[in-house]
Specification:
The chain has about 140 residues and is of the alpha+beta class. The protein has one domain. The protein has two helices and six strands; from the N terminus they run E-E-H-E-E-H-E-E. A six-stranded antiparallel β-sheet has the order 3-4-2-1-6-5, covered by helices on one side. A hairpin with a 5-residue loop joins strand 5 and strand 6. Helix 1 crosses helix 2.
């Protein structure tokens, strides 16, 4: 399936019900790779995959955009639309619909991700390399 959806909430100071993000539509191999990538970037388990529900759940708060960026970098999905909604529980949800143009290899993607992210965990960059995976 070329379309997937990432649903979560944005970190906002006045909203305390941020429960992370959920990814729908990835195949089992992509789910496993995303979970491994996210968990290896942090010292704690922040992502888990449910084969029964075919979703990836990320429990880290305020990480919806990070998840969208990782999916783009790992698998080549592009954001085609996004929407925001306020639930009746006063929780602001954001959803991103992402699309992968073709199932070609990522050879034509010359991603030069220079992530100068603020997540420099004591600048102890892990020595294991995952191709073009950036360790946050």
């Amino acid at each position: 399936m070329p379309y997937i959806m990432v649903m979560g909430s944005l970190r906002m100071p006045n909203l305390t019900k941020d429960e992370g993000a959920t990814v729908y539509g990835l195949n089992s191999e992509e789910r496993a790779k995303l979970v491994m990538d996210l968990n290896s970037s942090f010292t704690t388990v922040i992502a888990s995959s449910s084969d029964l529900e075919r979703v990836v759940r990320v429990t880290q708060r305020g990480f919806t955009l990070v998840v969208v960026n990782r999916i783009h970098a790992l698998f080549g999905y592009d954001v085609v639309s996004h929407a925001m909604a306020m639930t009746n529980a006063n929780r602001e949800l954001v959803s991103f619909t992402m699309y992968k143009k073709s199932s070609h290899s990522h050879g034509h993607h010359s991603h030069s991700h220079s992530h100068s992210s603020t997540h420099s965990h004591g600048s102890t960059h892990k020595s294991h390399t995952h191709g073009n995976v950036v360790t946050l």
